Amino acid sequence: MIVRHFLDYVRIAPAGQRAEATGALARSYLYSDLAPDDLAAAEGAMLMLLDDPSPLVRRALADVLAASPSAPPAIVLALAADQPQIAAPVLALSPLFVDADLVDAVATGGGVVQAAIASRAGLPCSVAAAIAEVGTAESCLLLAENSDADIAPISADRLVERFGHLAAIREALLARDDLAAATRLTLVAKLSETLAGFVTERRWLDADRAQRIAREACEKATVVVAADTPTTQMRALIRHLRVSAQLTAGLILRALLSGNVALFEEALAELTDMPVERVCSLVHDRGNAALRAMFDRAGLPHSTYPAFKEAIEAMREGGFISEPGGAARLKRRMIERVLTRCANEALGEVAPLLTLLRRFATEAARDEARLFCDELAAATFEDEQRSAAA
């Protein structure tokens, strides 16, 4: 009887009132204690409303049914195939879709549909991959911002490849805890390239200097990221660096002078094609003959060997223990020791190395000063808080 009155009403009511009545009918279907005959009649009426000429009516139906597991599947599927603004609520919220439905919607739908799917809670890996492959920039941004989405490393790489030049997507990806270290470094490299190009275009720096600063910033970021990378993922990170031509002598030396022995040893293992356990044994062994042979096998420049040798000897003596910054910052006293020893070498061979070490020393001194000032400011704040409390 109720549904009959409803049908009589919607035949003559204007679109806005039909939409209100449709929403009320859908809520009654979901939440009222209707008899089985009335439920069937209500479902039939909603099926009929799928043909209503006004999108307001169909959108009202979508808004009410979108998140309910009790919604009639036929109606939900029909709404998902409707206009984007009608399909969006059900595609964003309905638990009735299987992964294949969502992947198909991503492939055939436009930006509104893709954005709705990208915002789904518990978004599965296969759907995230589809969005990363064909989604618009907006939908990919929503995907990156969706902390509940399961984004496989290959899909994250695809996001970087397609939209890594967009600052918003870079920031959203970098904020994710599940982002692979190699992908994180690729984003850092893209950011460095963008900044280098910007300052060059503005003529604030010449191109060569801007590129050198960008390269050193990437190397610094690499050591920082590697310091937080689990040992099981370190070799994958090293291989990424090698393939992308970033596994340079400068980076490896920076890692060693930062106390990141794991990165240093994994890099040598990759370059020499030796087991990392063997490399570790040679690095920590007191003899230097085997160390020099391993160094030559790695193909590193001969002029850099004195710096590596002195840094390794200092490491064997426990020279990293008292330095601040963990394994992510250059160690000032270590660099000064290596710089002093290398200054006694023939100048022509080690001149570029000395220049690099001086830059390392300056960077380490500035980082140390920042740490000191931060600690001093924190101590002052604590003293003021205690004084105020007293």
Structural notes for this entry:
Helices cover 73% and strands 0% of the residues. With 390 residues, it is mostly helical. The chain folds into four domains: 1-79, no CATH class; 98-178; 180-233; 248-390, no CATH class. Helix 8 packs parallel to helix 10, helix 13 packs antiparallel against helix 14 and helix 20 packs across helix 21 (332-342).
At a glance:
The protein has 390 residues and is mainly alpha-helical. It has helices at residues 2-10, 15-31, 36-49, 55-65, 73-80, 84-93, 99-108, 111-118, 125-134, 137-145, 153-163, 167-174, 181-201, 207-227, 231-243, 249-257, 261-272, 276-284, 289-298, 305-316, 332-342, 347-389. The chain is elongated and about 100 Å long.
